[in-house]
Write a structure and sequence with these properties.
Layout: H1 2-15, H2 29-47, E1 53-58, H3 62-65, H4 68-76, H5 82-93, H6 107-116, H7 118-127, E2 133-136, E3 139-144, H8 147-165, E4 174-177, E5 182-184, E6 187-191, E7 197-201, H9 203-221, H10 227-240, H11 246-269
Antiparallel strand pairs: 1-3, 1-4, 2-3, 5-6, 6-7
Helix pairs in contact: 1-6, 4-5, 9-11, 10-11
Length: 270
């Protein structure tokens, strides 16, 4: 969208912190994962092992809960012109209703969502002084030496979200030990005693993939879907499982399926 590229992006980039990773040039999920791994390895060196903690936060119904008036006030502080503000206010208030929420999938909404939690980013980095922090939209992780310090940070973050942004942390918010694994962006990231980071597809996602593979196998053998569809899904699966121990399993399952289909075709032709 022209407005996002030429108006929103230049102003927003001046405001957002480096570790706000979603929907920005040269950033994204790979960047966020790389930053998380770097922080994990940094604390591994600083603490002399993997016995440290993480706080994983997630906002309840984030896009639906963004308050229009708070968002517009934040946009005004970015230095947009009156004409630009007029247009953005029309876009924001187009939902009507209770003056909350921005539409999912809209490119302007992505930028609005990046900015809305900037206050939390800056609170964590500048007030709480947490060096090891990364956010991908409403999914963010803090690392710390002790469980007690992260418990205090969680309470302070929850208060900031509630009082200043009218947001709530959801039940996915948790504190745990890094050696037991951090669920972030669809993967589990586990730091071993030797300092190695093992990334695997999250258990719930793995179960969904297994069910999806069974459905693909059924419809493929029945002739409902073709080779091109299976090849496209295989490419998607392999991209998602890049760098994990699940990659080989997924690839072998889909290759076996294609071999079975070829054998069936050969049997029918004889």
């Amino acid at each position: 969208m022209c407005f996002c590229k030429n108006v929103l992006e230049p102003k927003m980039e001046q405001r957002l912190i480096y570790d706000n990773a979603a929907s920005r040039k040269k950033k994204g999920t790979d960047f966020a994962v790389h930053r998380l791994h770097g922080f994990m390895q940094k604390l591994y060196i600083n603490t002399g092992g993997n016995n440290f903690y993480f706080l994983k936060c997630d906002i309840s119904k984030y896009f639906q809960s963004i308050d229009h008036n708070i968002l517009i006030a934040k946009l005004r502080k970015c230095g947009f012109s009156e004409d630009e503000m007029w247009f953005m206010e029309i876009v924001i208030r187009s939902r009507g209703g209770d003056a909350k929420g921005v539409p999912l999938g809209n490119q302007t909404s992505q930028w609005f969502a990046l900015l809305y939690l900037d206050e939390v980013d800056r609170f964590i980095k500048e007030k709480l002084r947490v060096a090891c922090y990364v956010r991908y939209m409403d999914d963010f992780v803090l690392l710390g030496d002790t469980k007690e310090s992260l418990q205090m940070h969680r309470d302070e973050i929850e208060n900031t979200c509630s009082q200043k942004l009218q947001l709530k942390l959801n039940t996915k918010t948790q504190i745990g030990m890094v050696k037991n694994g951090i669920d972030f962006l669809g993967y589990n990231h586990k730091l071993t005693a030797s300092g190695k980071i093992v990334r695997s597809i999250r258990a719930s996602a793995r179960e969904r993939q297994k069910r999806y593979l069974k459905a693909i196998a059924y419809y493929y053998m029945a002739g409902v879907i073709d080779d091109d569809y299976v090849a496209a899904r295989q490419a998607a699966f392999l991209a998602h499982s890049k760098g994990t121990k699940d990659r080989k399993f997924l690839n072998n399952r889909l290759n076996s399926l294609k071999r079975a289909k070829r054998l069936t075709k050969n049997d029918l032709s004889h």
